[in-house]
Amino acid sequence: MASSPALNKVGGDASVAAESGSEEKSPPAKNSVKHNVYDTTIRSHSSGSGDRFEYSGWVFHLGVNKIGREYCHFRFLTIRGKYLEMYKRDPHENPGTKPIRRGVIGHTLMVEELGRRKVNNVDMYALRFYNRLDEAKKGEIACTTAGDARKWMEAFDHAKQVVEYELSRGASVRNKLSMEDEIDLEGHRPRVRHYAHGLKKLIRIGQGPEMLVRKASSLSGNNVETYYDADGGDAVEAHEWRCVRTVNGVRIFEDVASSTNVKGVLVKAVGVVDASADTVFEIVLNTDRQRRYEWDALTGDLELIDSINGHYDVVYGTFDPRYLTWWQSKRDFVFSRQWFRGQDGKYTILQFPSIHKNQPPRSGYERTKINPSTWEMSDLSTSSSANGARCLITQTLEINPKGWFKWRNKHCPKFEKTVPYALLSQVSGLKEYIGANPALASVFSTTIVHSKSSDLSGSNSEFEDAEGADEFYDATDDSSSDDDDNENDNKEEVNKDMKTKLRNISWAIAGLSAKRASEQESSVLNTLVSPINLDSDEFHGTMRRAKDELDKNCWSSPDGSGFMIRGKTYLKDGMKVKGGEPLLKLVAVDWFKVENCASKVALHPKSLAQFALPSAAGKKLPFIFIINLEVPARPNYSLVLYYAADRPVIKSSLLGKFIDGTDMYRDSRFKLIPSITEGYWMVKRAVGTKACILGKAVTCNYLRQDNFLEIDVDIGSSSVARGVIGLVLGYVTSIVVDLAIVIEAKEESELPEFILETVRLNRVQLDTAVDLDQ
Predict the structure, then answer these.
(1) Is residue 28 part of a domain?
(2) Same domain (yes/no): 746, 608
(3) Is residue 541 domain-shared with residue 425, that is, in the same domain?
(4) Residue pair 737/672 in contact by the 8 Å Cβ criterion
(5) pLDDT digit string (tens) for 58-79?
(6) Is the peptide bond before 635 cis (omega within 30 degrees of 0)?
(7) pLDDT reported for residue 42
(8) Which of 147, 318, 622, 764 is the 20 to 30 Å CA partner of 456?
(9) Are residues 258 and 185 in the same domain?
(10) How many Cα atoms sit within 13 Å of 547 on the Cβ side?
(11) Contact 509, 566 (CB under 8 A)
């Protein structure tokens, strides 16, 4: 994908290496992806005003040059505060090296995981970043591991938090940032300025791009406080798991509810390995035969036959029955793999039996179906001060109950020579394989080095330029000559003391008890005003309300007891409790089909907002909250949810600040908690129960008018979200989905959280959607 032509000037409280006369070393080879090491570092600048973090490391910059030729350049990126710099050499090893690009990471920046792709025949993990207000401003970078891609996303997110904090400081800062946001990406590379910095502590991971052993970075500072929720999910788990065996240190569970199912029993193997989730994820996806032979007794012979996108592929495999079963004929199989990473860092891999036109049954082999299964990998310790990484691995699959019950009750030896047992044994194989290869456990280890003040000292300074600083989205066209990249750099410096304090934020979720719901409501809605009667019969959307739990193609509004949210003491103990009644009432739901994704639905003539809100019932509503979920499909759909408040919203409350806040503020607070209460288990595992900050995952647009706020959620803006919603749509007629909306609380004064809204969608029929375009 082509990159925009500029990553431009910076300012603010950033810090870079001061210039010196040291001779530069030779840069890494250009246009090559053979390097498998990034020297990625974190710098934490401690001062009276708080900590500043530096994120830096090697990446591959991808793009298309002016003559249409794709390029892949090895580049060193550095993020300090809200500023980003791109170098051809590591400036810490080559003092005096000048950045070839600089730019501001603005609050409208979106970072999307594109998943795995082939770059010069090497598997890499690509990230796309773009301005959500102008997608023409975009660019791509790639990393050799999923772990590095995740950490760069965290670095960009941290930079956006810096912007959020600075915008909260007052009008003068907002005016300055608005000048920095003025960007011209069409011109030549702009002048750049240098400034000094102070550095107290250096956390260095890896030894540089010339090393042969891959060591990835840990882009989280030692001072970041992390909290863990109690059960790993933010919706009450529908399954009740019981441990029935422990084999080679791996626990085998069965779902109690499914044990009475004549069609299949849900079983899972759970183990802990001494490696990070990033490492385990890459081991499981890797199709290298020699590596898989060391831990995988069933799918060791895998061949990639098709790559659909960065998050989906199809593989072909064979196995010899002599090593596993009593079958005489050799077996082959085809299955698809779909994977994604949640905002909590957990990886999920879905594996389905499949067919593919390029891989018909092979002569001499009998085609068999591999049981549908899922992998889940989540870190048990994310603090860089922990003694080594540890990861919880869960593999879940559906098994024919006949053989399973025999093994569970009588330890039938025949079951141990079946495909399901071989799948369950993969967790044991991984545990032993990683234990026998200590290098895998230390891949993401960190080293702390205290720098000398004489080497890395100086005053804090800020970029200032009459032309204003440009915002970084991209990007750059790195195809121009290397000899004159920095000839026009402006070396002028403007020193200024910066006194800022960015509070580290933990994004884990925890709770509000139901008994405190009324107390929370009084702090959000004006209780001095008499509530109005919200009669749902006065509002009619295109989707009808459910008559009972067995009703289909309808909606209802459950209470919040099925969701876990942050409590009053969350910042102290990380505890969460069940939510209470929703603050706003769901009055109607529209289900539309559209040619193109529809935004600003409230202004459309067919919208309920145009029929009901101007009416007597609508005019007396103190506030209406409208959520438009734009569902990518053929055709596209829009699920529009209308919520109403029975009292005016207090302006100074968390909800009031959200309603009248900036888009950046809303993006950082708008949280969705999903839960599939009924439906195919694979869909449940794909959707999960973890809360998602929607503004960080997909593009959200906001329309604030009169007495309503509309949020247009573009699910199609994320390739991961598109993949998950595509799976859900395949089973939508047989599933029941619960959703809860929460405005995330980050300060103690904002706690406890409250359930803002809920909706239950019962077995939705796609063909009943009303055409919005006609």
Answers:
(1) no
(2) yes
(3) no
(4) no
(5) 888 888 877 778 888 888 888 8
(6) yes
(7) 38
(8) 147
(9) no
(10) 4
(11) yes
